[in-house]
Amino acid sequence: MLSRLTCGVVTFFLCLGFVRPGFAQEGSASGIEQRVGKQLQKLEPQLPPEELILTGEDDLVLLRRRKFFTVKLDSSFGYVSNAYSSDDNKKHDEVVNENLSLRFETKIAEKYTVFADAGAFLARHVRFTDLNYDGVTGNLGARVPSGPWTFGFGYRASAIIEPGLDTRIVTQNSTSASASYGIAIDKNTSVVPSASASRVWASPDDFTNTSVRLGAAVVHRVAPDLMASLSVQGVKRWYDNYYEETNNQTRRDVGFDASLSLRWTPSENVSMSISSAVGYIDSTLNSSDYFNFSITPMVTLQINGL
């Protein structure tokens, strides 16, 4: 499995260019934004939670030694109550997620962070194997601190592919901007409200959309190597043309999600976490309404260099 992910990173642009141009039909693509979104979100240009959390003061964060590149593997096996992301077909399942990423990151003028990522990921469902997918992604981003504020900007290209790399489900190019504000409650606790907006251009263009998000996180250091966090987020999404020829209506979504997680980091190369989350979407397209509950244990292995 690891070698397959590694191959995905190396051949990212080859996959974008040479995967057979036929696309999966609506059935296999249904709910793909929700199922893949959490994996892609890990590469969005936001300050890492452990840095936002501890001080709320970017000056202290800057004193930490940064590594030029990081290789990271996330492995998880979790339960989802709504595998198809639709209340019209609500079925529970267990799913394995694997994410392999390579990040290059540096600072300009000892203040402005710029980074580039390449990644590969996959999902394998225990019961409903028609929901399985592979994916590759590339990301460019920057973070700009200004007092307690942190601003993020990014561009991402991704391809979601049916297992076997023979049929592309969807490809996306997106730009995003975000802002967060760190509020230190005490030396171990911070509250971080945030806002972001993104524009996604997709092929097929049924998935092209614009979204805005508002949220907040509360993070507390329980012990030197143990961190707890609670986050809530609301989203509004406008689709340009989501299968309107079939549905005869425009799709607009309003959503909410919340998560609670606990992470143990015994060393800089290993961390283990468990998270529980709920997600809700109210859509103008009834088949896209859903409520989901998930619980996910995860192990992360990380290698830092330079």
Please tell me about this protein's structure:
The chain is mainly beta. It contains 7 helices and 13 strands.
What would the keywords be for this entry?
7 helices; Lipocalin; 306 residues; mainly beta; globular; 14% helix; 58% strand; 13 strands; disordered N terminus
Form type:
globular
* Secondary structure tally: strands: 13
Query: What fold name goes in the CATH topology slot?
Result: Lipocalin
Q: What is the CATH homology-level superfamily?
A: Autotransporter beta-domain
Q: Which strand order does the major sheet show? A: 1-2-3-4-5-6-8-9-10-11-12-13
Q: What fraction of the residues are assigned to beta strands by DSSP?
A: over 45%
Tell me the distance between the termini.
27 Å
| Mean pLDDT value | 82
Number of continuous helical runs: 7
Secondary-structure element order, as H and E?
HHHHHHEEEEEEEEEEHEEE
Sequence stretches where pLDDT stays below 50 over 5 or more residues: 1-28, 43-65
Instruction: Please give the largest β-sheet.
Output: 12 strands, antiparallel, barrel
- Helix % is 10-25%
| CATH architecture annotation name | Beta Barrel
Radius of gyration: 19 Å
* Main structural class: mainly beta
Number of domains: 1
CATH class: Mainly Beta
Which SSEs are present, and which pair or pack?
Layout: H1 2-10, H2 12-18, H3 26-29, H4 32-41, H5 49-54, H6 58-61, E1 69-80, E2 93-108, E3 112-125, E4 133-146, E5 149-161, E6 168-181, E7 183-186, E8 189-203, E9 209-223, E10 226-239, H7 244-247, E11 252-267, E12 270-283, E13 290-305
